[in-house]
Amino acid sequence: MIGALLAGCGEKERHAGQADARPDATPATFVGREACARCHARETEAWRGSHHDLAMQEATEETMLADFDDVTFDYAGTTSTFFRRDGGFFARTDGRDGELHEYRIAYTFGVEPLQQYLVSFPDGRYQALPVVWDDRPAGDGGQRWVHLYPDEAIDHRDPLHWTGVYQNWNQMCAECHSTNLVKGYDAEADSYDTTWSEIDVSCEACHGPGSAHARWAAQIEAGEVAGDPADGLVVKLKDESGGVWEINADTGIAERSAPLSSTAQVESCGRCHARRSPITSDYEYDRPLLDTHRLALLDEDLYHADGHILEEVYVYGSFVQSKMHGAGVVCTDCHDPHGLDIPVADAACARCHLGAKFAAASHHFHPPESTGASCVECHMSSRTYMVVDGRRDHGFRVPRPDLSLELGTPNACNDCHDDRDVEWAAGAFADWYGDVASRRPHFATALAAGRRGAPEARRLLADLAANPEMPGIARGTALSLARQFPQLADVETLRYGLADPDPIVRLGALHGIEGLDPPRWARPQWFELLAPSLTDPVRAVRIAAGRLLAEVPRERVPSELLPALSLALAEYEDAQQANADRPDGQLNLGLVYSGQGRLDDAERAYRRALALDPWFSPAFVNLADLYRATGRDAEAEALLREAIELLPEDSGVRHSLGLALVRQGRHPEALDELRRAAELAPDQTRYAYVYGVALHSLRETTRALQVLEAAHLRNPQDPELLTGLATISRDAGRLEAARDFARKLLDLRPEDPGAAQLAAELGPP
After folding, report:
1. Domain ranges of the chain
2. pLDDT tier at 518 (50, 70, 90 boundaries)?
3. I want to staple 366 with a disulfide (CB 3.0 to 4.6 A). Which of 171, 298, 373, 511 is the partner?
């Protein structure tokens, strides 16, 4: 059966918009904007001076916008000075050692509303200074130096210090600010040899390497070919369906006369305008976004439950939630593809939304020309990042103050009327639009329930995941939350998710499986389920499936699955190598090596992670666990105590130290560390469970039950807590309570033999 599922899945699906033919088989190379400008003068002129053109520049009199006339800036006890010398621009500020040093500015980075500055280091690193120039007019509060973390006191001992890994241009920024960027990281030397074809975001950053197209154009000019559709473009960004937008007289909204022929444009823009991480060192211009990058889902630390932007997520994840995206809108329907400008924002909306209907007071209920009458103010609310940089949410949302009232999500009404409460906004909205608007189903209800572990979450998340009318990114997020609800993560729910046409849904389903304990799901039915994912046409899905099976003993994996698993794991390792200059990339490499028994390589990877970020607690924890597994308990304890010196409030390190002390029989010390971990992270049910079991083992049963019951109230669906409560209540002679907890556990996991056995042993309530 598994062999049949694998058959035919190995060939990559062709990306809509990929060129089907090329003038010759020679791989295209980068030729530079001047070669493009010979035929595309109008586009080149529009591009000049755009944000793409000014994404990065050499530091010169013409490009530097800030005041470098011996200006000082005070921050957290450090006085930085910005000055000129010998034709160059310099900053005197705190370095890696906390002392003041002079640094020459090598490049500008960005232009509006902020211009940042890059400093070159001898190891090939470029680091972004944290004090940046506010380029807005003085009347708007600009023309000043500002610090990107004004409310924090970040010094050289902080992982966010400007000299550290998280302010490194080579791996954090470079891919999206230059053309044909090759990072050139050497993990052994911990150094860079980063190169690019063009310093800014030029023609080939979007259209791909242009040599074949330039050769084709020369042949056309010479009369050698005529009308050949194989024009040498690596990827075609233009829709060739012939469809146009036509206003539907009944709805007042434009509809496409023909479906889009290509997804290439939106996914090409998404390469940089998305919260994502690379999964390959070499960007492939003719592949879907998820074949080269892992896209963030609507995670709680990034988005509100209704999809509103929370952290800086760069447009794409919001846009793919929208009805606009579903209707076939692409970026260039609103934005000039080369100059990037848009007309007056509401005028852009009026292209597809009939003004007589949507610009009328009967629609927006505000005075004409007021903020409340503006399309973008109501449907594209703005959030400010980097102190002054306003970013508009591209979800094009209908304001939902009713959801704000229920779930605490933001809404455009209260964004503007910040002196009024949510109840007022919900009441006004209902008066204007009736109850129907507030009763429209929204994925926020399910995601909010899943995030807080509500009893109804299983049903709501399953319904959302199965609803094709909902955005794929929301459905994928619902499946990713399945790890908290074992009944949701049953074979049929996951089978549908893993077979969904949208790869982001398939990826979410794999994340949902990831939270389950491998011995529970590494069974024939799960291997059968995961087999197609190992040869999925999209790389992000393949490597997620491979990672799921990485720690399953090879003797338990069906032999016919091993070749596909080996390939998927190799791709997963390559993805981590692409991020080897990040501590999380080294951590993941360590986990892969540990699973393969390559313990020396794993130790080296964990050590590299700590060299990149000395405060990276997961590397401390996993390295200590490796020491424990190899009988080096003393080294494990010493390492964890070193970590606590740096990170005294880190719950994961405290928990790991507690377990290490338990293994050494030092129970009073262990109990103290386990208690601290549970107190520092009350939402981490695992910490509460282990602390409760430890208390019970030391005959502090009453206290153990108190700890577990408090955690159970916060997380009523957690099976481990229910198991602990049932067994410890039984041991304490509280049989009625034990039966109640056992019954809840069985209701939660009806397929679990252990839950059934425990309930049977305790008897009926």
Report:
1. 56-200, 400-439, 582-681, 686-765
2. low
3. 373
What's the rounded Cα separation, in Å, for the pair 726 and 723? 5
Query: For residues 213 and 23, is the Cβ–Cβ distance under 8 A?
Result: no
**Does residue 519 have a cis peptide bond before it, meaning omega lies within 30 degrees of 0?**
no
Question: Tokens 């080269």 belong to which residue?
Answer: 292
CATH superfamily, with its number, for domain 686-765: Tetratricopeptide repeat domain (1.25.40.10)
In CATH terms, are 582-681 and 686-765 the same topology? yes
- Within 13 A of 514's CA, how many CA atoms are on the CB side? 18
First to last CA, the chain: 43
Tell how far CA 217 is from the center of its chain. Answer: 40
Question: CATH fold of 582-681, please?
Answer: 1.25.40
CA 632: distance to chain centroid? 36
The helix/strand/coil state of 147 is strand
d(CA 233, CA 493): 41
Which one-letter DSSP state was computed for residue 481? G
For the entire predicted model, the pTM comes to 0.91
Q: Which two tokens stand for residue 697?
A: 């083992």
H helical segments located in 481-632: 491-498, 503-514, 518-521, 524-534, 539-549, 562-578, 583-595, 599-612, 617-629
pLDDT tens for each residue of 251-268: 999 999 999 998 899 999
pLDDT at site 235: 87
Q: Model confidence over 9-66: pLDDT tens digits?
A: 333 333 444 444 344 467 899 999 999 999 999 999 999 999 999 999 999 999 999 9
